[in-house]
M1 family peptidase
Amino acid sequence: MKKIGLTLSAFVLPLAMSSAAMASSVEQTKGSYVDKFRQLDEALPTPNVYRSAAGEPGEKYWQQRVNYDIDVKLDEKKHRITGSQSIEYKNNSPHTLKYLWLQLDQNIFKSDSIAETTKTFKSTLKSLPAQKPAKLSLGELRRQQFMSDNELGYTISGVKDDDGKELRVTVVDTLMRIDLNEPLKPGKEVEFSMNFAFNIVEEDAVGARSGYEHFEEDGNDIFLIAQWFPRLAAYTDYEAWTNKPFLGSGEFTLEFGDYDVEITVPADHIVSATGKLDNASKVLTSTQRKRLKQAETSKRPVFIVNAEEALENEKEGTDKTKTWHFKAQNVRDFAWASSRKFMWDAKGYQQGGDVQPLVMAMSFFPKEGGDLWKKYSTEAVVHTMEVYSKYSFDYPYPTAQSVNGPVGGMEYPMITFNGPRTKLQDDGTRTYSQAEKRFLLGVVIHEVGHIYFPMIVNSDERQWTWMDEGLNSFLDGVAGREWDPTIPWGVEPRDIVSYMKSQNQVPIMTQSDSVLRLGPNAYTKPAAALNILREVILGRDLFDFAFKEYAQRWKYKRPTPADFFRTMEEASGVDLDWFWRGWFYTTDHVDISLDKVYQLRLDTKNPDIDYSRLRDIEADKPTSLFVERNRAEGKKTWVEQNPDVTDFYDENDRFTVTNKERNSYNKFLKGLEPWERKTLERALEEDKNYYVMEFSNLGGLVMPILLELTYEDGTKEDRYIPAEIWRRNYKNVQKLIVTDKNKPLVSVTVDPGWETADVDVENNNYPRRIIPSRIEVFKKEKSKAKVSRDIMQDIKTELKSDEKKDEKDDGGEPQ
């Protein structure tokens, strides 16, 4: 059957492209093809019996299990931990193990650790004589002095098996290998014990994930104790022993197990810990136990230890001790906090369901926490569980705790460390800024969220920081904006633009210790990517279903990136390989430029109509400046001066229609099939607007094209073009947009809501807009020569007493 081809006439041409757009529009030469939609399975591990192609645990998935029985004592005066532990290790792998690896995280503070000996010096250096010296902060000097004055790292002794036989140990930096007296076969268990001790670091001096904080005004301390006992490294199906050294950035992956921990502290201390308190009758007063019971059903937090009681504790001090006994089931780690300064409030989260109907949300904080903590900490804990459970699974543990101390933010099963505080004013009141309020809400939501990821969905943080920080940052953005959407949560696509166009970056899929900028790479970029995936690409229904499927599949298990990628694809039913490849494996960025918009009109094939239209287009072209000036001067053309010297072409132009063309048109009509003629007649009657838009991908990262079309009548319409439009040419594409006759376009905007992290929104507008910016008036300073010290004058300066120390100092730095 003959097919007709109709033509479209472009009668409005676009503005010229920029040089960058012109360069990007060059046709790809032979051999330069890049497939942005190449399937990711080529880069992912091959599915096997442990991890399926669907991204779920395979039929023979396994992981080890480790149970701990620990007795630990806090020496408050010496700032020292001493402990003993008995460990039960179950080999669920198909392999026979001749040795076990343990993590010795406190060894990171030893002077000869890899982390310490590879620290680099960051300052601008110049050879002498130099106007300005290099910089060394007082904080760094304080750190050096503390580490020089204190013996840090573990002291380990008495490593024996359950028969009391010595076990050979080898310490390698932050790891220890225990050689077993007998090989541990699949399905078998081994028990062993050891003693350990270490000096606790002062967190403010050293900068760590745990430590103590000393308060000079009252002589007391807050102890946040984590990474405190030798812990079994994970043994996995994808890496065997995860025995990379602890360098500071890459955190941990651990095995699940049960913990029985007895913590001996000064008798006036309050202790918060992973697990459930097993001996409340021995360490809490009857009043405190009564208040805890009341808190289970209270609408607002109830103080178990109130401000007045905490202040009394601060004043006393004692040589007596108490032992707090905690038990925790099916957790991958254990942390605790202790201080006589703690207030303690609690509120029952009535979760319902079969998993854990009642969760006790609790906060522990000193007077320095003030109303900020009283109002918001425990409430934020509850809010986090409510939101996270919607997108993953019910919170499975009996407690969720927020503890204030020197650590800005850190997470462990059932307990989190969070830093913001109030400020003591001269009138004795305590106030906090809006930034501190937002910080508290943000850090509590984020750290409690970590109890889900990675404390339950147990990803490998030493390998892939983004798998816990990125996923959790995405979800804390969901929870945070459900608390208060006006707070900038840092997970919007616009929040990652400056990083994505920077030179100092690595792909998200970079091993944790090799990431150059941890914050944007591990937190913001993956969170923004997931935000885009949910809101722009998949939509909430598909994304939420797939994400919840991932969380529930890998609850209490150890997923890898491949498991996440495959689950999100398999459960959503959408091919996302292009998305993972671009966002997680490259440093490409999003920059889609709208270079040209052609407005076209359908030719009628009727020469009387089409040639008339072409004549009108020709008439609309600007007249030559030469001709205009000649007319203005009254000059007449030769033909005007000699009208008798004319011929046929002075009366007819190239748009004159002949009967030959009319006959051809009539023949064309007769040759049409009925359906073809009907189609043509309808198209001519509707006379729609045809627009061809030319797009350039300047950033290399393929993404959907989000369009906002603004019409002549003032109305607007959103159009969504899937990322697959770039499949055959990721550099340049053209798209035909058809609108009704009465809906001519006046402007087009790409990504009007800034939802795709496009780094240059100014090439998203057509026609281009005038760019708003700012300018500031300033007074030019006179150039000054280097000011030397006027010792003759400066020696007359009075030496100020302590009473005048806050007054302006007339002195200066030595020159």
Q: What stands out?
A: The chain is about 25% helix and 25% strand. The chain has a mean pLDDT of 92. The first strand starts at residue 8 and ends at 12. Residues 285 and 304 are 10 Å apart (CA to CA).
